[in-house]
Amino acid sequence: MKINGVSYRSVWVDPNDHRTVCIFDQTRLPFSLDILHLTECAQVAHAITSMQVRGAPLIGAVAAYGLALALMKDASDEAMERDAAMLASTRPTAINLRWAIERMLKYLRPVSPQKRVEAAYKEAARICDEDVACNEAIGRHGLELIRKLAAERTSDRPINILTHCNAGWIATVDWGTALAPIYMAHDEGLPVHVWVDETRPRNQGAGLTAWELGSHGVPHTVIVDNAGGHLMQHGKVDIVIVGTDRVTTRGDVANKIGTYLKALAAHDNEVPFWVALPSTTIDWQVEDGLHDIPIEERSATEVTMLTGQTASGAMETIRITPPASPAANPAFDVTPARLVTGLITERGRCKATAEGLLSLFPERQA
């Protein structure tokens, strides 16, 4: 995707130093476009836990490069297993992180320590390239849904799409998941408009999704998190498309906190609710999302404090709650499969059921 006409991916190896890994500091967006140059595994771990890098597919890709950086210091079996476990523990909900680390280990264990660094960088690059191809395919399959809505329009109003959190290119290596069909529809000339949930408490929608869409020229409007149901009641949402951090074998979906409430509103108003995901986000070992997906509890300060840009252009952090009031901060919730219209994967679309998933991934049959 492009920023001011320049093409970027969300993670890349510095062309002037083929061992340095570059990412955008997403905690600084949309007010400042800062590039971080990561040279140590500890920096990668910090970037993931602090959400300088976030989005399930991107976390996995960056963690893969993190293991490559770790091997630069110590490529022994013991150190590799230790550093891999450390990276895997940085975010508990996103399954792509565990998948990427396990893939790296499977590939690197048979490789001699002397050759592991080069091998690790090559495998991490393959993970990134595959993610780009995967997300582009998700975009094509999701585009068909938007084309169908466009064909059914009876007025000149745009196709209104609601999304939650950020599932765009900044959350993946490129294209994004939920936003990929929207970019393709816009580029095709279809009249799309996106309702962008602010996504408290970190405001990934207001800060990241709005920035992405604006950079690409896609019409959009930022709304407060609780406005979606109201808009659906008044016929102002044609379809909901969100991303996900983990999907179970029966189609339960874990995504940013607040997604479940959007699904309930969509179900009540007969608005299609679609979830876009790469197959790496499917956890084939978990069936019951509500009870078996660990939900990350993040710092209360994300709720009690708010960071933004003042009228003078300075970045400031302010408190928005009484000093003595405690706060809870579950980062994700689980939307039961019964509320999900369908899943959009790189292999096509399917119902959010065990049978639907297996129709696309028959190799997972027991």
UniProtKB/TrEMBL annotation:
Pathway(s) where this gene product acts: Amino-acid biosynthesis; L-methionine biosynthesis via salvage pathway; L-methionine from S-methyl-5-thio-alpha-D-ribose 1-phosphate: step 1/6
Q: Which Pfam families match?
A: IF-2B
Q: Name the GO terms of the biological process aspect.
A: L-methionine salvage from methylthioadenosine
Q: Which residues form the active site?
A: 245
Q: Which residues bind substrate?
A: 54-56, 91, 204, 255-256
Task: Name the enzyme group at the top EC level.
Answer: isomerase
Provide the E.C. number(s) assigned to this enzyme. 5.3.1.23
Where in the chain is the site Transition state stabilizer?
165
What keywords are assigned to this protein?
Amino-acid biosynthesis, Isomerase, Methionine biosynthesis
The UniProt GO MF terms for this protein read:
S-methyl-5-thioribose-1-phosphate isomerase activity
InterPro entries on file: IF-2B-related (IPR000649), IF-M1Pi (IPR005251), IF_2B-like_C (IPR042529), Initiation_fac_2B_a/b/d (IPR011559), M1Pi_N (IPR027363), NagB/RpiA_transferase-like (IPR037171)
Family per similarity comment: Belongs to the EIF-2B alpha/beta/delta subunits family. MtnA subfamily.
Protein name per UniProt: Methylthioribose-1-phosphate isomerase
Origin organism of this chain?
Answer: Acetobacter estunensis
**Source species taxonomy:** Bacteria, Pseudomonadati, Pseudomonadota, Alphaproteobacteria, Acetobacterales
Instruction: Please state the gene responsible for encoding this protein.
Output: mtnA
